[in-house]
Amino acid sequence: MEDAVEAFLTNARIITADAEETIADALAVRDGRICFVGRAEDYSPDPSMLRIDLAGRTVLPGLIDAHTHPTMVARSAWHVALPDTDDLDEILGFVRDYARTHSPHDAPFLYFEYYPSTLFDEHGPTRQMLDAVVSDRPVLLQDFSDHAHWVNSRMIELLGVTRDTPDPVPGLEMFVRDDDGEPTGYILEMAYEHFIDRMYDAIGWRPPAVSADAMASVLDRMSANGVTSLFEALIEDEQALAAVSTLDRDGRLTMSYEGAPRFRTRADLDAAIATARRLDSTYGSDRIRIRTLKLFLDGTNESGNSAVLAPFDNDPGGADLGEIQMDAEELTQCLLTMNREVIDLHIHMVGDRAFRVACDAVEHAQALCREQGEAWNMRVTFAHCELIDPADMSRPATLGVIVNWTTHWSGGYFGEEGRSYLGERWNRMYDFTEIADSGATLAFSSDVVSVNELHRANPFFGMQVAATRADPDVPLDPARYPGSVRPSERARLSVARLIRGHTRDAAVQLRREERSGSLEVGKDASLVVLSDDPFAVPPEQLSRVHPVAVMFEGRVVAGAL
To answer: How many helices (DSSP H) and strands (DSSP E) are in the chain?
Structure first.
């Protein structure tokens, strides 16, 4: 990595992303900060400054990935990719053949990703199906939504989970069971993680530790795509956080890092806050901060455990509204506690009932603060928000809630896997145009969890999908959806809004707006020089745009100026 440069960049189209949306043609860097941005003729650079003619190239602020999982990506290097198929026999045959060619000594635990969420009904797969192909060691298959898992009987046995084992969160984070209460082998929301150490102890093996080099391999790939700041949306591995800290101390960290431990209920909130404080004290620095907590409020639309306002279409009883982690009153109390502690909250939610409950809780907590003469100190982010009732669209702007959306999901990535549960509601999912028009802070992200999808963490790939509603990798059936465009076409986001959500608005979410998010005097010299102007290429070709140089705090960390 190069040392920080003192440079005067000229002959450029500099999109500053400031509040006035200023376009400049020159920018100067000194001591890792921007010391000038504007017209070249208005600045007299120091003779020692390196003068660089960018030949008309477009420059953006360093991009921010405001919800992703680099640790999960680093940890997934040993996972095995399943064939891309909807054929159950082909999947089971692949698992059987892999086990035959990899002995229990060499591969004591088999972890495969992904099988299609639509392969089974709401009852999910069974352990007996896997037992028929592998029974001599634990086997896990992860579904495409990342929120459901299929395991064999040997893994259930080694986890020590029986009919008498309580589920971590009944109805949400749970082991699906048969009529006798026995685990079927279908697991929701990584409930197995609570018992995984038992299995590792029993087999005398653990996955490879996440090293500084492993984290660097992930972060450097993201950096090469123009990312100069990210939010790790779930810290589960302190060793990985220590690895990020090592990179920082060694001068190898190519971006700023924010992260969030998890809590589940009001009962464990105080312990989670203490964990965040300890992690921030131990590993925090100018570039690394832990000042947010993560909450999963509901599940996924594809698994049928999102929290919805109207019953699921495939529920014969017409009463299934999905699952929710806590009600508005409990969430209100959590918000009041976190507000007093000045610690932020990042909430996973996908269903419209989860969205409404969270809005109600924020509104109530803010009202109580006003009544008690307390300031509202915290920032609340709603992540995903896949289905929002039209009546609630304006509420984030009113409440000051930040909405975070994963752009590369905007097309056909999850296919029609939620339609069986949502029916016609599926057609109005992933529409953030009214949220954007309302003036709400709308940040964007990649939410990648595996090395097998890390290529989709490229912000320009996500921008293309969000601008077109069509996924070039996983297109919808063009015979049913012309151009493979996901309904509705009106939900397409503009390039200007997409860039703002990866810069200025994302910086607000991470509390870094004084340092990043726009190219202004005094802010970090973190910027991206592009191969093409994203405003000039057709939306369906945005993914071809790539950085030719990435600067982080005045250092060129990818490419070259």
So the answer is: 16, 25
- Pick from 274, 276, 306, 282: which is nearest to 294 by CA? 276
Q: Which amino acid is at 139?
A: V
Q: Give the type of residue at 534.
A: P
- Distance CA(200)–CA(205), nearest Å, equals 5
> Is 82 in contact with 89 (CB distance < 8 Å)?
no
Q: In this structure, are residues 232 and 272 in contact, taking their beta carbons and an 8 Å threshold?
A: no
CB-count exposure of residue 438 (10 Å: 0-12, 13-18, 19+): middle
Q: Give the span between the Cα atoms of 261 and 523, in whole angstroms.
A: 28
What's the one-letter identity of residue 502? Answer: H
Whether 224 and 502 have beta carbons less than 8 Å apart is answered as no
Distance of alpha carbon 341 from alpha carbon 377, whole angstroms: 9
Q: Are strands 288-290 and 292-296 parallel, antiparallel or unpaired?
A: unpaired
Q: How many Cα atoms sit within 13 Å of 169 on the Cβ side?
A: 20
Residue 85: both structure tokens together: 């198929």
- The pLDDT tens digits of the residues spanning 209-256 come to 899 999 999 999 999 999 999 999 999 899 999 999 999 999 999 999
What is the percent of the chain with per-residue pLDDT over 90, rounded to a whole number?
90
Annotate 153-216 with three-state secondary structure.
HHHHHHHCCCCCCCCCECCCEEEEECCCCCEEEEEECCHHHHCHHHHHHHHCCCCCCCCHHHHH
Q: Which residues contact 218 (CB under 8 A, 6 or more apart)?
A: 70, 73, 74, 451, 454
SS3 (DSSP) at 59? strand
Taken in order of first residue, the domains within the chain and their CATH numbers are 1-62+518-561 (2.30.40.10), 109-203 (3.10.310), 212-516 (3.20.20.140)
pLDDT at residue 146 tops 80:
no
Q: How many CA atoms lie within 13 A of 246 on its CB side?
A: 13
3-class DSSP assignment, residue 548: strand
Cα dihedral across residues 332, 338, 339, 345: positive or negative: negative
**At a CB cut-off of 8 Å and minimum separation 6, what does 412 contact?**
470, 471, 474, 475, 476, 481, 484, 486
Q: pTM for this one?
A: 0.91
At residue 239, what is the residue type? Q
Residue 2: Cβ within 10 Å count: 11
> Pick from 51, 191, 25: which is nearest to 124 by CA?
191
Q: What pLDDT shows up at residue 1?
A: 59
Any residues with CB less than 8 A from the CB of 380 and at least 6 apart, and which? 335, 344, 345, 347, 358, 362, 399, 400, 401, 402
CA 19 to CA 500: how far, in whole Å?
A: 10
534 SS3 class: coil
Point out which residues pair with 547 in neighbouring strands: 530
| 3-class state of residue 10 by DSSP | strand
Of the candidates 260, 420, 411, 471, which has an alpha carbon nearest to the alpha carbon of residue 347?
260
Cα–Cα–Cα angle for 457, 463, 467, rounded to 5 degrees: 150
